[in-house]
Amino acid sequence: MPARSIRVLVLDDYQSWRDYICSLLQTKPEFRVVAELADGLEAVQKAQRLKPDLILLDIGLPALHGLEVAERICQVAPAVKIIFLTLHSDADVVVQL
After folding, report:
1. What are phi and psi of 71, to 5 degrees?
2. CA 93 vs CA 78, 85, 86, 96: distances in Å
3. 22 in Cβ contact with 36 (< 8 Å)
4. When comparing pLDDT for 70 and 62, which is higher?
5. Full-model pTM
6. Over the range 32-49, which residues count as b (16 or more CB within 10 Å of their CB) and which as e?
7. What is the mean pLDDT of residues 54-73?
8. Nearest Cα to 59, choosing from 41, 46, 40?
9. What's the Cα-to-Cα distance from 69 to each of 4, 35, 53, 56, 72, rounded to whole Å?
10. pLDDT at 64
11. N or C end of the chain, less CB within 10 A?
């Protein structure tokens, strides 16, 4: 086991996808999932409290769009790295990033 694992917060509204990502990360000793969530507002609060190293973030969240979630997280936990995950193939969504 590595001396320090990468602490990951997984945020996606699709439960099966979150389960898949978390199970995949659990096979890698260098990663440790610290939270898995479906709600953007809750993710902002958890990011502020847990200070994860990495957030895997869905763009298409229902109540609060993933881009807005990312902006808020960057305000409360500026050191966190964010990787966007999406099933969107629309170029307009990608251009916003």
Report:
1. -60, -45
2. 23, 12, 10, 5
3. yes
4. 70
5. 0.87
6. bbbbbbbbbeebbebbee
7. 91
8. 40
9. 27, 16, 16, 12, 5
10. 86
11. N
Q: How many CB atoms are located within 10 Å of the residue 85 CB?
A: 17
Kind and range of the H or E run holding 68: helix 66-76
Query: Which one, of 78, 57, 55, 53, lies nearest residue 67 by Cα?
Result: 57
CA angle, 79 then 22 then 65, to 5°: 55
Identity (one letter) of the amino acid at 63? A
Which whole-number Å values give the CA distances from 18 to 1, 28, 57, in the listed order?
A: 24, 16, 10
**Side chain identity at 15, as an amino acid letter?**
Q
CB atoms within 10 A of CB 59: 19
The two three-digit tokens of residue 5, written as one number: 């694992």
Confidence of residue 54 (pLDDT cuts 50, 70, 90): very high
**25's tokens:** 């990360």
